[in-house]
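Please, structure for the following, as tokens.
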Amino acid sequence: MEKQNIKTNGAENSEPFHPGVVSHGLKECIFGQNMIYRDTIGSTNAELKKLAQEGAPEGTVVVADEQRAGCGRLGRQWVSKKRENLLFSVLLRPNLPPEKIFVLTMIFALAGIDAVETVSGLRAMIKWPNDIYVGVKKLGGILTEFAISQRTVQYTVLGMGLNVNWNPSRVVTLLYPSSSIFSETRKKISREELLTLILSRFELFYQRVLGDKNDHDVFYKRWNERSAILGKQVVIETGNECVQGEAAGIDHDGTLTLITGDGQRRKFLCGDVSVKTTF
């Protein structure tokens, strides 16, 4: 979870992640061929970007039990209790123009919420631009980073953090109300099973996005259907302004359209959005 300033202690008695279980379950999947596990790491995204620059193949996965310098959007620190949650990044080398990269974030989120629902029954939603929510609480987040050379995407790294088996409500300095699969269901979930489901589903979506049959519109429709904010009155803060209005739709490039009180249609590519509460 994203937070301001807090130190966390590792849960040394908790069960470590078993990457071999996931690799075995993904024998026929590109994400099962080169899985790198770290007990403790600075950031899975940072490590995978370094490996990408050194020529690591598409499908490389870095998964960790603890991040010391994990980041969310806008450089915020990502907090996660050791050996309780899911922290991983995947490497892609897609044949996509830079303006189409948002589709990868989108299908990554859809794979995540599908897997969460399969293992727990929770109907998670997507909060623009890159958060996973259950009800009004944050369950996880995604960080997408990519490198471009001469208008060509060289690689894309997609990182995901999901609260699985800890109780984030005990961390009082988190930026947002947060929850976990365990907090919602009171059941411990196998992180290995969850990651296997996410990556197998993600590969299917990825192949469809890159395939001859362009399925982008199908995924954009699903993304909008699983949006936590569309059709609601929201407040978006960009750093330069604070705008209120109805969240009307999310475009193919990830742009959020807001209809303000005076009928204007405003478009935002990034910002912090919250559902407006009335009393």
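The longest strand covers residues 137-149. The two ends are 28 Å apart (CA to CA).
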